[in-house]
Structure formats: C-alpha cells, structure tokens
Amino acid sequence: MKQYYASFWLLLLLLLVSAVSAMAQDPIIAISGTVRENGTQQALPGVSISVKGSTTGTLTDGSGKFALKARLRFPFTLVFNMLGYDAKELEISSGSQPIAVVLESRAIWTNEVVVSASRVEESRLKSPVAIEKLDIRAIKETPAPSFYDALENVKGVQMTTSSLTFKVPNTRGFNIPNNFRFMQLVDGVDMQAATLGVPLGNAIGPTELDIASVEITPGAASALYGMNAINGMANLTTKSPFTYQGLSVYQKVGVNHVDGRDRDPSALTESAVRYAQVIKNKFAFKLNFSYLQGTDWLSNTQTDQNPQNLNSANPRFPALSGANNPAADLWNRYGDDRSGNVPVAIQYNGKTETFNVRRTGYYERDLISPTVRNLKFDGGLFYKLTDKLELSYSYRYGLMDGIFQRGNKIQLKDVTVQNHKLELRGADYYIRSYVLVENTGKSYNLNPLATNLDLNNGSNSVWGGRFQKELQSQINSGTDLATAMQRARALADQGRAEPGTAAFEQLKNTITGINNWDIAVNVPGAPVTGGAALWQRSRTYHTEGQWNLGPRVKWADVVLGADARVYEVIPDGNNFVDFSKPLSDRTTPGGNNQYYKKFGGFAQATKLFFADRLKLNASLRVDYNPEFNPKVNPRVAAVYTLAEKHNFRASYQNGWRFPALFEALSFVNNGSVRRVGGLARVNEGLGFLENSYTLVSLDNFTAAVNKDVAADPTGTTAEKQARAALKNRGILQVANLPTMQPENINAFEVGYKSVLFDNHIVLDLDTYYNEYTGFLGQVEVAVPKSGPVGSDASVLDMLARAKQDRYRVYTNARNKYRSYGSALGVTYNFYQKYTVSGNTNYNNIAANKAQDVFITGFNTPKWTTNLSFGNREIVRNVGFNVVWRWQDAFYWESQLANGRIPAYQTLDAQVNVRIPNLKTTVKVGGANLLNKRYIQYAAGPTIGGLYYVALTFDNTIIR
Fold it and tell me: Residue 362 in contact with residue 334, Cβ under 8 Å?
C-alpha cells in the first residue's frame, strides 16, 4: 500500500512539474494599442480588454491607451467591452506593432436578449408577451437614487413605497403594499418573505455594484412560474464573477427632509463593495457588501375615513362633523378604528341618544423609529466542472428596519432574511435548490401597540363610563354637543401615557417586547400591559429543475421544468399557531411546526414557420397544493414578424394563485379582532365561515337601532334596544363565506414592437384584458355567542360587543372582476447620442352591478406617464439624464385605509462625470428635485426630495 501511495505522489509531482514547465515555455508577450470611438475618433477610456479563454485583462487609460503583458501563445483573441458600445473581438497573430481598435457606439440596443418571458433566451423584439428590461447601462444612467427606484420609470410598472428600505412594484392593477401577486426573483430565488408575505427584492437583493439586469414581465406569468406571479414578475440578475472580475467600491451621500416639515434635514448614506476573482479559469468567487442608513419618510396624513355622515359614525348629528367628529378614524392614527369604538348613551333633547365615540389613539409619528438601516451581504463560489457545466453555491444575508403595511402598519426592526442556494447548471439544463430563513427580530405592530397604550388607561367600558358621565354633565350644563364631546374626552383621557414623556417610552417598550396582543383588562390571564411584538420565524425550502431538450426533439424547441416548495412556520402563538392544539390552548407559544406545500411542473414548445417569420409558443403548467385540487395553467402565444422589423404578438393564458401563507394560515389577535386565514382547518370550532354577520351590515343595523331607540318613548334603554334590534333584524347580512379557493385569472394580450429608421426609433405597444375569478381579500364578520345566525339570540348579541367574536377573514370574492389597459413606449435617438424616451400607461376596471362581500381595491391610477431626455456623453466623459413622471389621481381601498390619492408629478435628474485615470465616476442627482410632496397610497408616507452624490470606483475587467 505504501508503494502505491509513493507512486501516486510521484506521479502528482511529475504532473505539477510538467504543468509548470509548460507554462514556463509560453513566452511573455507585450501588447499595446489604443481604442477609439468610430466616427468621432475620440479616445475611449475605461474599455475592458481581456484575453478570451483566460483570466488576463486590463483597462484603457484616460487617453484610450492600453498595455497588456502576459504569458501567451499566438494566436489569441482580445475581447473589447464598454457600456454603450458593441463588443468587439480581435485575433492577434503577432505583436510587432501597436493595435488600433474602433468601437461602434449604440444609443439604442436592437439585439437585447431576455429570458423571463419564455424561460429561455430569446430576442426581446420577438418575445411572446410584454417584457421590459433595465440593463447595466440604463441602471448607470438613471437619475433614481438606486436601480430599484428606477423600476418606477419602466413602462407598465407602479411602485409602492412604504419606507426608504421597503418598496414593492406591481403591474396592471390590484396594487397593495404587501403584494402577494407579484413575484421577485434574484438569480432564480423567490425573494418573498414567507410569513410577512411580501417580496424583499430591494432589502436582501443585489447591491448597486452587482446588479447586471432587471427584467419585468407585466401581467400574468403564472403559466410558467406558478404560485404568486399572477400579476407579473421581476427577474433580477447579478454579475457573474467569470465575466465581471476585480474590485468595485460605491459610496453615496444624500439628504432628504430638506424642507424640515416632517423631520429635520437628514443625511442618507450608502456604501458598497464588490470583489470578484477567477482562479485558473475553473474556479471563481465573488463577495458583496452594502450598508444603507437614513431617516425615513413619515406617514402623517390625517384624512378621516369615518366621517360624520357614515352609519359607523353619527349621521344624525351634523354638529359632530369635521374636527368635531368623536368617531374619527384618521389615516395615520392607530387605536381609533372600529375595535376602539365605544357606544355612549345619554339623555339629549329629551331622548335616549347613543353616540359612536372612538378611543383617542396615537399618531404613527409617536410610535415608530425614524432611523432605518439596510445591511446586505452575499458571497458565491463557482466551479466549472467542464466548459459547459458549472456548480455554484451562494449565500445571501439581509438585515433591515423600516415600515411595512399589511392589514396594519408594522415597524420592522432587526428583520433578517438568509438564503442558501446550490445550483448545477449545464448548457441546456439546471437544477437549483435553496432555503430562505426568515426572522422578524424585534418588529412590532402599530395597531395593538396604540390600542394597548389606551387600554392601560382603562378598558373601553371603564373609559366609556368616564366619558358618558362627563358628557351628560356637560350637556346638562348647557354646553353645546361638540364642545361637550371634547371636554368629555379630555376627562376620560386623564392618566393616559402621553408621547414625549418617560412614562410613555417605558410603557411602549414594555408592550413592544411582549408577543401576546391580548391585555388583562379584556382577557383574564393575559399580560397586564398587553403586547404588540411581531415575532415570526419561518423557512422556505425550494427545489426546481429545467431541461431544454434542444436537438433531441426535431419538431419544436421543447423545455420541461418542475419545482417543489415547502413553507415551514414555527408557531409563535400569536400570528401563527399549531392547529392540532385544542382551541383553548391554540394561542400558547410552541407546538408542531406548520407546513404549507406546493408542487408544479410545466412543458413548453416553440415552433418557427414561414422562414422564421411566425413563432408559435404553447405551454402547459400543472400546480398542486395538498389543500386544494390540482390546477392547470395553459398559455398560447404567437409572434409574427413582418418585413423583418415589425413584430406583432398575441397571447392567452390561464393562471392560478394559491393563497399566500398569511392568507391561508394566519391566526392573529389584533385589537380584539382575530385576523384569520381562510382554510377550513382554521375555521374549525370558530364558525366565522358559516355562522357570522358582516360588520358592514352590523354598522347599518346599529344606526337603525339607535334611531328607533331615540324615537321610542317607553321602557328602559335595554328594552328599547331589544325591540329595535328585532324590528331591524333584516338589515343584518349573513356572511355565509365559502371555504377558501385559489385565485384565478384569464389574461389576454396583444402587442407590437419595432425598431425603425435605421435603429433610431423603438416602438413598443401592448394591450391587455384580464378576468379574475375567486379574487382573494378580507371581510370583517361578527360571530354571535348565544345562538346561530338568524335566531333572536344572535340578533340581540349584535347589540353588545362582549357577546360577539369578531374576525377579519381571508376569503374569495363572489363577483368576477375585469380589468383592461394599454401601454405605449417610444425611444428616439434623434441626434448623435441624444435620446428621448417616454411611456404612457392606462389601466382601468369594469364596474360590477352587485356589491361584493369585500372591497377588492384596484388601487391603480388610470393614467401614468414617464418622459426622459439624456445624453450619456454630452461632452467628453460627462453625461446627463432627466426624467419627468406624472400620475393621475385615483381612489385607494384597503382594510387599513381608504381615500383619494391626489395626482402628482416629479422631476428627477443626474449629471455624471467619469475620471478615467482614477477609474471613478461621480454622479450628482436628485429624485423629486422640486420637492413636490406626494403620497402613493392611503396612509402611506409623504415623499419629498432626495438629493445625492455618488462615487463609483470600478476596476472591473469584463471578460
């Protein structure tokens, strides 16, 4: 055995010596030359020059000159790369004289390749569905503060900003800040945080230095991607270390809140570093790090969404309108919603009158932290097993703070998401597995925080008793109703924790550190102060594979794919629970982890006809979730090319969306209203599906009862209420909610794309029509404690909050919803490197005659427009870009807030200066330069101007 080991080591030594000798035999070759722009003959600094098939490379200097010295053998090929120019390859057979190379400038790219539309590489011009792309050049030239912000200027995209660190794109309507319907992939990994139920593409995704491209597919993409791509997807691709090698450093310094209206002017900083290296053409690695810190935008709009004229307020008393409304429910104040409503009955004008009064609540500005952070780190190891087979492992980590809006506002604090990915990729196939680990850290929910802060000053009945006594006293003294209400509130609020005091901060910190939102004054055995912590932990396991059969099938290009996903949730007893526990123990922490699964597969075939002028594409996907029956998603599409330049397309697809984890399995007690998933197992023992009344009808019922009680001259108040309740029982609407089913869409699209006038004009037009069935949303219901709905006992239960259990339930809409729209994009290179481009987008929804069980919320402006004008090099090494955006007014509807969103317009601009000798670019710019304050959704933050200076040192060699 020792002899074999000795022979092995001797052989290995001989191989190493042979390899070293072979390398030593290659002579040192010195190559030099210049690179200029075709036409102008200007020297081009910063051009990447690499030796094809090796790790050798360099960059041109400020005069466009380069010199390369390495051990090489003639002939070899040099590859010249620079953003905005066609790449060029040049074979070198001798080194006798300097090389002169010219590169062709391209203001408009006509040969862009995209992947997302069909899951295989294809020309963007001939994509079977609408697709948009931001490449490296577009990202570098955008005046937006980050590449992610630049998505807002892409045709068909609507961006929702909850925080500096938290932004979510959407396309073609039904927008919400936690967008279940829009998928975000980063290098093939779905970035959706499982329990938060929202994609975190900008929070744990690529840094500014590592992003290579972003592809946006507006509209349904579920026929190929399944699950949550029913409203579209964004595919973010990072730079390969085999292609982009070297060191890059990025530093941005900015300022926002310049007008001092919401907060003092504040600095924003972002730092990033990227390093990538190839070792002997086989092994490569890359490392990325970034850190952002700033002062967040503030949500402080005080729109009253429960005005005096509504039945949930006091419609018979005009004196209680506007600022005098005691039942006001303001956008950015919490604790004053329906759960904080206190009926107050007094003798007024000789009648028994019952007034709706809300608890005082607390403003968002007093409940949140203004400072936000976002730390990102990722690294990857890549190994080429052969020239066409690569094995890679990557790790991604993100930590973030910020504000996030779901059913309520959530203060994200120390949220972490980790991702491990292992991938084997060949020339025509890949296999990928990854796990996402989510931990919400020290986050908390603003609504239970505000509610419990108020309840620490007395339960609703205790507080209401103080209010009622003082109100009656004021009325008896001749005080007018509105003033009497204000004085009664002041007395009832005595002893409450006031913002800005040490007592308030201490109580707030105590509540946000408790993961039980019940409070002892309402629930015996609950924490004395109540809680508001949001402690959620989950893991997502995903495996997928894809195989392009290529020449193995002669009649068409066939692609096969399959995937499997498992969500694992660790029960916290407050947001997610173990449903195998008895109902009485369900809200205690711990228990069996909960699992939610999905499996799917697809087949796609593409065939060319008529000398490649007609491309037909068809795919069929099947998805299965054990909670539901299997669902089939077909897509058919055609692209016809006329006269080589005019590309017409049409497509149809059917898509399904399984409920997200929060929609399916949540079990959240929030302000004495439990927010629950819609699966049948969640309903067991509770009865919210089959034994409940809608709260909308309960508001109307209560208003009718109060009116009749005031008009009834005989009996006690309780007797009057009972008679009025039974008289008005027909107003109560039985919810009769169906067991949750997947959401469905039928999507039709036609489009046209062309490059005209010698590649100077690009036209892109698409029109769509969508039909949604089983749309998922939330409805609030009340379950009577004394009897089944329809009985006298259940009707009388609706008079007293203590005799009801209230739920906010995820369920399916009863109506079909039809949306439609169109988008037009034009890019025009009108003179040298001057380019003007723009897009206009129209989205609308058809009205339904019948009222649905809940408000679906289209939440999309009818019209949006973007217009940009720029020149990447107006003079040597200096470029600029200006973007104007306008958005129409529209109405926003959600469970948290409703109201009109005013139209707004913004102006963004940047000037960049390259310093070739320092390999550095300086970019000075601003978003919303004129500081015209605006909001993007109801209860959202007010966004002002953000001004920045960014420096990028880039020593990257492109190979």
Answer: yes
For residue 936, give both structure tokens: 């993007």
pLDDT confidence bin for 543, thresholds 50/70/90: very high
Q: Return the amino acid letter for 151.
A: L
The DSSP code for 317 is -
Q: Which H or E element spans position 867?
A: strand 863-875
Neighbours of 928 (CB within 10 A): 20
Cβ atoms within 10 Å, residue 113 = 12
Q: Which helix (H) or strand (E) holds 778?
A: strand 776-784
Provide the 10 A C-beta neighbour count for residue 372: 23
Is the backbone of residue 574 left (phi > 0), alpha (psi -120 to 50) or beta? alpha
Q: How many CB atoms sit inside 10 A of residue 73's CB?
A: 9
DSSP characters for 55-112? S-EEE--TTSEEEEEEE--SSEEEEEE-TTB--EEEEE---SS-EEEEE-B-SS-SS-
Burial of 80 (0-12, 13-18, 19+ CB in 10 A): buried
Tokens 């109506």 -> residue: 815
Check residue 11 and give its pLDDT.
40
- CA dihedral over 379, 384, 388, 392, signed as positive or negative: negative
- Nearest alpha carbon to residue 950 among 928, 927, 923, 926: 923
Q: Are 402 and 166 in contact (CB under 8 A)?
A: yes
Q: Which amino acid is at 381?
A: L
Q: CA quadruple 310, 312, 313, 318: dihedral positive or negative?
A: positive
Alpha helix locations (H) across 807-925?
none
Contact 768, 821 (CB under 8 A): yes
Helix/strand/coil for 681: helix
DSSP state of 626: T
CA distances from 717 to 101, 377, 708, 710, 712 (A): 95, 65, 11, 9, 9
Amino acid 915: pLDDT: 93
pLDDT greater than 90 at residue 452: yes
Task: Taking each helix axis as running N to C, give the angle between helix 695-711 and helix 717-727, from 0 to 180 degrees, rounded to the nearest 10.
Answer: 130
Of all helices (H) and strands (E), which one includes residue 885?
strand 878-887
Whose structure tokens read 């600094």? 45
Instruction: Please tell me the pTM assigned to this model.
Output: 0.91
Distance CA 926, CA 945 (A): 7
Token pair in block for residue 310: 């509504």
Q: Which of 16-30, 98-112, 188-202, 270-284 has the lowest mean pLDDT?
A: 16-30
**100: number of Cβ within 10 Å:** 10
Q: 596 is written with which tokens?
A: 């939610």
Question: pLDDT by residue (tens digit) across 397-433?
Answer: 999 999 988 888 999 999 999 999 999 999 899 999 9
| Beta strand extents in 610-717 (DSSP E only) | 614-624, 631-642, 646-657, 667-670, 673-676, 693-694
d(CA 684, CA 679) in angstroms, rounded, equals 9
| CA atoms of 29 and 31, how far apart (whole Å) | 7
- Per-residue pLDDT at 305: 95
DSSP label at residue 177: S
* Distance, CA of 505 to CA of 457 (rounded, Å): 15
Please give the Cα distance from 574 to 556 (Å, whole number).
53
Q: Count of residues for the chain?
A: 959
Q: For residue 216, what are its two tokens?
A: 């946006």
Mean per-residue pLDDT, 954-959: 85
CB atoms within 10 A of CB 556: 15
Which pairing describes strands 614-624 and 631-642: parallel, antiparallel, or unpaired? antiparallel
Quick: pLDDT tens for 829-850.
999 899 999 999 999 999 998 8
Residue type, 500: G
The answer to whether 412 and 440 are in contact (CB under 8 A) is yes
CA distance 747 to 772: 9
> Using CA atoms, how far apart are residues 800 and 165, in angstroms rounded to an integer?
43
CA gap 21, 7 in Å, rounded: 21
